[in-house]
């Protein structure tokens, strides 16, 4: 592998990691959203900080 291939692979892996993180947080919000009606907002923010 040339140096250019390694750099492009690192860039791709970095983008893939950020995309996966964004999708995971989005799915977490979608799955938790129905519980917002029963719980208070400060409790939810506390849970997110602990997570």
Number of β-strand runs: 0
How many helices?
A: 2
Q: What order do the SSEs take from the amino end to the carboxyl end, as H and E?
A: HH
Classify the secondary structure makeup into a structural class.
mainly alpha
Question: What coarse outline follows from CA principal-axis ratios?
Answer: rod-shaped
Mean pLDDT: 77
N/C terminus separation = 39 Å
* CA gyration radius, whole angstroms: 18 Å
Largest sheet entry: none
What portion of residues is helical? over 70%
* Beta-strand residue fraction: under 5%
Spans where pLDDT lies below 50 across 5 or more residues: none
Explain what you see.
There is one protein chain. The protein is mostly helical and 51 residues long. It is 78% helix and 0% strand. It contains 2 helices and no strands. The model has no long low-confidence stretch (mean pLDDT 77).
Using brief descriptors, characterize the structure shown.
single chain, 51 residues, mainly alpha
